[in-house]
Amino acid sequence: MELSKVQICLLLVVLTVTCSIPSCVSADESESKEFVVTLDHSNFTDFVAQHKFIVVEFYAPWCGHCKKLAPEYEKAASILSTLDPPVVLAKVDANVDQNKVIANGFEVKGYPTLKILRYGGSAVQEFKGPRDADGIVAYVKKQSGPSSYEIKSPEDASSVVDDNKILIVGIFPEFSGEKFENFTTLAERLRADYEFGHTLDAKLLPRGDSSVAGPIVRLFKPFDEMFVDFQEFDVDDLVKHVEETSIPIVTLFNKDPKNHPFVIKFFNSPNAKVMLFLNFTGEQFDAFKPKYEEVAELFKGKNLSFLMGDTESSQGAFQFFGLKEEQVPLIIIQTNDGGKYLKPNVEADQVASWVKDFKDGNVKPYKKSEPIPEANDEPVKVVVADNLKDVVFNSGKNVLIEFYAPWCGHCKKLAPILDEVALSFENDADVLIAKIDATANDIPQDIFEVKGYPAIYFTSATGNVSRYEGDRTKQDMIDFIHKNRAFVAKEDSRKEEL
User: What is the pLDDT of residues 277-330, one digit of tens each?
Assistant: First the structure.
């Protein structure tokens, strides 16, 4: 789940719009008109260049999530078109070959993907708002407005300082000069993730030294020390400070929705991720929490982020990492290169020494692989981590492989279709249709980027790797294989078919 990876979008506000001027269209006309602008390779660049702010959805016609979003996106577009100035929502069919160049340029890896394009497309941000019409409208209005709001009164401060969210406020003697300009640059760069304010009077703010005249940047947060001040105004340093201090020393992963935004930030962090899973309702939690927080403090600033996950709430993570409840309390560390390090049935007094051993390079990686199946006579061949590279790169075959999760509904729907594809190539010795349980096997993410299920890749007999993004129908998959397969000379040394 992009758990992130855990992939969650939150937020919203309801807006209503009335038609009160003569030029407004009638209700019937409004219902028939499409407010979402359709773009493609022929008009995308010119259209985007004309707009200071625009939202673009990259979609595929076969995508169920895209179909669900479509009416909400259209409704939001109709509301936003009435603003002064109007805000444009657009869409691009990224399943069309000629449009894939555009999608690839924006690093579109799944559907639907929404991007915010500013200043004619010169600045691009992820759309991180909700996916219902009212939520889209509220989020877009906020993103298209000022990146930072002036706090002029205690009422202004109380309306933006929230005990459940992060707020970044710049305190200045005057709203001018290099430091103020750097603050506005920071706000513009990070506005998709944080709320910003600026003020001339620190006394209006509820926490921190009220006598400071600035320049200073104060970050309010609902955890740990509750606020932190920065006096360094280099933009890159500010970004680093904000990112580091906006994650709790220990992130809690449970059913409390107030923790969800920080769980997302944890999994999006570039740090190695140290995750302790245990039962929050038992005595273990009280025994582990203070010691785990001590460890997190000890390794603060050393490229490690720490999380405690409740067993009951972490089933998705257990499925993702292939963990079992009988292993708890357990620690798993995931590094940026996909490496995993596991310590099952850990005791509270062992945590610090084990994390230190990991940092010192004294812990061996944990490789997750199912056993190679002895019988493998179904149409779609089963592959595991221990033979994945041999099958897809060393077999001399053209391989279409599905990375799936046993609990995934889309994967279950695809299974009989893959069987039919495999049967259509059963007499073709150069083509193999395969599958691998991505929750029970480690996947080399540097080759196959699997962030959702099912993920389908094709490896030609000459080693070219491409992701299959076409319709999930038998004929479309067969056509794709024929189009992308490679023919190689027969060799006596070729490995026998699985």
Answer: 999 987 888 899 999 999 999 998 888 999 999 998 888 888 777 788 888 899
Burial 43-80 (b: 16+ CB within 10 A, else e): ebeebbeebebbbbbbbbeebeebeebbebbbbbbbbb
Give the CA distances from residue 2 to residues 7, 288, 391, 394, in Å, rounded to whole numbers and listed in that order: 4, 27, 28, 31
Residue ranges with strand state E in 160-240: 167-171, 195-199, 216-220, 227-230
Name the residue with tokens 């056509």: 479
DSSP three-state, residue 267? helix
Whether 63 is catalytic: yes
| Among 278, 333, 277, CA closest to 302 | 333
First to last CA, the chain: 31
Containing H/E element for 92?
strand 88-93
List the strands of the sheet with 272-278, edge to edge: 250-253, 304-310, 272-278, 330-334, 340-343
Half-sphere exposure of 396 (CA within 13 A, CB side): 13
Taking the C-alpha atoms of residue 210 and residue 202, their distance in angstroms, rounded to an integer, is 5
Helices (H), 110-198: 133-144, 154-160, 178-190
Least confident of 244-248, 294-298, 416-420: 244-248
**Can you give the C-alpha Rg of the chain in angstroms?**
26
66 is known as an active-site residue: yes
Q: Three-state DSSP class for 324? A: coil
Tokens describing residue 335: 């590094």
Find all residues with CB under 8 Å of 248, minimum gap 6, and list them: 223, 224, 262
pTM (two decimals): 0.60
Give the active site residue among 9, 19, 24, 408. 408
